[in-house]
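Tokens for chain A. Residues wanted.
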């Protein structure tokens, strides 16, 4: 863990009722920030994240919101700003998969993944940046995936959305750099979460064998990279793609 920051800020993490999002909420609280987060439906999971943040001495606010719905994003920001003030740290972590071979992929499975994983990030960034510009300080981290660079058979929708996050992030980095707002991408490889536990055993064995470090990563290992990019110490890093993948994506 990196030490607490000198300034306590308001962070918003999307999709933090479990997995990487929950670990990120805790890591940001350990930096001394108040942490708001959203989740799609798992109220018990969200309560678990609040408890985990409070266990490290932090303050958390859970909001049930859908990042694929612009009105829901708007009301989430209104609630968060009302409770904690302007958001100057934004982590777009919410993500879903709807896997299937491209030739048989339904329009619905294509658009729901793009709407959540890519358009959702665009919407939250657009909503969050006026306050960051006013503060002349901001940190945005978008959670992509190793599949966004390498491609992933059976995940054309997911890989397209995750690759899109890089173009979005680098454009934001260029547009807002002069305001001391950074925008970076963290690209996890296979991580032990509900998302990968739902995959077939054969997939998991193959993925593990392909990782040079020989194992899946943990949510805490991804959260540490995300949290670092949100610190004052990371002020000169923007538009970067930081893999947290055990070496799986080397060369991409
Ligand atoms: P997870 O499935 O465990 O948790 C996803 C979270 O997102 C949940 O809190 C869920 O409520 C929330 N969410 C989903 N759709 C939402 C929506 N429309 N609105 C608001 N919240 C929504 O996921 P995870 O494994 O922790 O992954 C987190 C991120 O990391 C995702 O973007 C995922 O694509 C990415 N990632 C994960 C892995 C991995 O191996 N687990 C690998 C690479 C990238």
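Reply:
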């Amino acid at each position: 863990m990196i030490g607490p920051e000198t300034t306590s800020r308001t962070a918003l993490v999307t999709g933090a009722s479990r997995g990487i999002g929950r670990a990120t909420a805790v890591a940001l609280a350990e930096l001394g920030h108040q942490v708001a987060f959203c989740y799609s439906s798992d109220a018990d999971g969200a309560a678990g994240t609040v408890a985990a943040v409070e266990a490290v001495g932090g303050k958390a606010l859970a909001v049930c919101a859908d990042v694929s719905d612009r009105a829901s994003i708007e009301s989430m920001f209104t609630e968060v700003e009302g409770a904690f003030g302007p958001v100057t740290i934004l982590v777009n972590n919410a993500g879903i998969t709807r896997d299937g071979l491209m030739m048989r992929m339904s329009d619905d499975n294509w658009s729901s993944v793009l709407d959540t994983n890519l358009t959702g990030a665009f919407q939250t960034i657009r909503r969050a940046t006026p306050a960051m510009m006013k503060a002349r300080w901001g940190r945005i981290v978008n959670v992509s995936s190793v599949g966004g660079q390498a491609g992933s058979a059976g995940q054309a929708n997911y890989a397209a959305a995750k690759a899109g996050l890089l173009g979005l992030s680098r454009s934001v980095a260029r547009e807002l750099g002069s305001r001391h707002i950074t925008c970076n991408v963290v690209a996890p490889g296979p991580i032990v979460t509900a998302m990968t536990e739902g995959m077939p055993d054969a997939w998991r064995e193959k993925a593990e064998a392909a990782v040079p470090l020989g194992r899946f990563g943990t949510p805490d290992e991804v959260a540490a990279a995300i949290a670092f990019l949100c610190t004052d110490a990371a002020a000169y890093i923007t538009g970067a793609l930081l893999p947290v993948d055990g070496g799986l994506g080397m060369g991409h």
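The chain has one domain: 10-244. The chain has a mean pLDDT of 97.
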